[in-house]
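From the shared-data thread, chain only:
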Amino acid sequence: MARWALLLLASIALASCRGEAEQDGQNRDYPALWEITGAEGHTEGWLFGTVHALPRDLEWQSAELEQVVETADMLVVEVSGLDDRRGLEELFRALAYDAPPSAPLYSRLDPPSRDRLRAIESEQEIESGTFDAMETWGAALALAEFGRAHSSEFGADKILLAEFANREIVELEGARLQLSIFDQLPEQEQRDLLAAIIEEVAKQPGDRVDLASIWSRGDLAALERTTLQGLLADPELKEALLVRRNSAWAAQIENLLSASDRPLIAVGAGHLLGEGSVQSLLEQRGFAIRRIQ
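Structure, as tokens:
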């Protein structure tokens, strides 16, 4: 549960389903990859947008990305300790139960969301009241577990972390900070988050957008259209979960790019789209960003 909570935040704008891209590597597109250059025109690093749960057989690593993985001196991710399941569970519980709510979960929902939650509980054989003791954000993330289409074991960030196992890995946030972002949301925003996740989990698989397919072929316009729906359609949630984080990351990344080591910066693809993206914030700081894939 805790690891999925982190992955939900890391990919807040994107879910993942089976891709439909061509299998012939010479006749297909791949997820977007960017080169970062400094004032003197030298390559300072790379940006790659990830999806954190993918089908086992989805081919998403291009020759260009493989070359960058070989060349980069370090990997920069949102959270690095995704394999520490026990530690993540303990951290999640410590935060999700530290302020007992004053009302049962049903009382924190509007009538349509209550009906959807009852349907989810019936389908998944969840006992009513299971999440009553959790803070609202914790219940939201616990319920998100039931909406997963694929395993995080095959997620892009998990694969990249393994490939950089013998090189430096830098975290932009870390597990505690990521979960604290949820924990510090105002109660009304937590309830908006809960309602949005319940609505998504209640959907039939055929009604969900095939985002892994969109991501895997590098269709940024389609990805951006998708991010305007769901959770990020709420301005306050978008500010807390995307805008403020991008701003903080840009400052950290600028410091990393000032060193001699060249990083591959791999973050959730939703952070690399449109106005306020990490690329646009780095360009404001004097870097040139060029899509190379």
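Residues 235-257 form the longest helix (23 residues).
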